[in-house]
């Protein structure tokens, strides 16, 4: 299959998958207003993005582990980055370097973010240094959909 045709096919499949993940849910007062918000359930290792009563995307994540647990509470998307290099503290046993981490939604000043993960597929298991890692397809949907200021509720 020629590359342009393959690219068109991939985009069509992604659009169908994105539409298929939308489903109505029971609405609260805030949700009824059509507001966008993201729910991160650390116990289930699951993220759900809502717009009003509709689920925009829902899927497994990998959150922070051990002493690097993802913080809980209500946060807001502070800034977005299409791709950024990420690293841990140099000289420690937990140092890491990940170049070009895609579709980053920062929600704390300390660097916690929801972002795409290309270096592992262990979603459903806490593995990170505090961020919320999502599969690439989900992270790209979230990045395109969530503006700065979108609420993120993180809980167990």
Automatic annotation (TrEMBL):
What GO annotations for molecular function exist for this entry? peptidoglycan L,D-transpeptidase activity; transferase activity
Under which pathway is this protein filed?
Cell wall biogenesis; peptidoglycan biosynthesis
**Active site: which residues?**
115, 131
Coiled-coil segments, which residues?
A: none
Keywords (A to Z) from UniProt: Cell shape, Cell wall biogenesis/degradation, Peptidoglycan synthesis, Signal, Transferase
Q: Where is the signal peptide?
A: 1-27
Q: Which residue range or ranges hold the L,D-TPase catalytic domain?
A: 36-155
Provide one Gene Ontology cellular component: extracellular region
Q: Which Gene3D superfamilies match?
A: L,D-transpeptidase catalytic domain-like
Give GO terms for biological process. cell wall organization; peptidoglycan-protein cross-linking; regulation of cell shape
* CDD domains in UniProt: YkuD_like
Hey, which family's this protein in? Answer: Belongs to the YkuD family.
Q: Any idea what this protein is called? A: L,D-TPase catalytic domain-containing protein
Organism of derivation:
uncultured Thermomicrobiales bacterium
């Amino acid at each position: 299959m020629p590359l342009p045709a393959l690219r068109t096919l991939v985009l069509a499949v992604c659009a169908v998958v994105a539409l298929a993940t939308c489903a109505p849910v029971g609405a609260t007062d805030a949700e009824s207003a059509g507001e966008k918000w993201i729910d991160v359930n650390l116990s289930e290792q699951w993220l759900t993005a809502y717009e009003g009563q509709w689920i925009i995307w829902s899927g497994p994540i990998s959150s922070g582990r051990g002493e690097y647990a993802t913080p809980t509470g209500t946060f807001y998307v502070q800034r977005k980055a299409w791709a950024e290099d990420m690293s841990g503290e140099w000289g420690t046993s937990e140092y890491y370097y990940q170049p070009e981490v895609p579709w980053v939604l920062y929600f704390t000043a300390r660097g916690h973010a929801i972002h795409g993960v290309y270096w592992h597929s262990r979603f459903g298991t806490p593995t990170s240094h505090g961020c919320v890692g999502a599969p690439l397809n989900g992270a790209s949907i979230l990045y395109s959909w969530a503006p700065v200021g979108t609420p993120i509720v993180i809980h167990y």
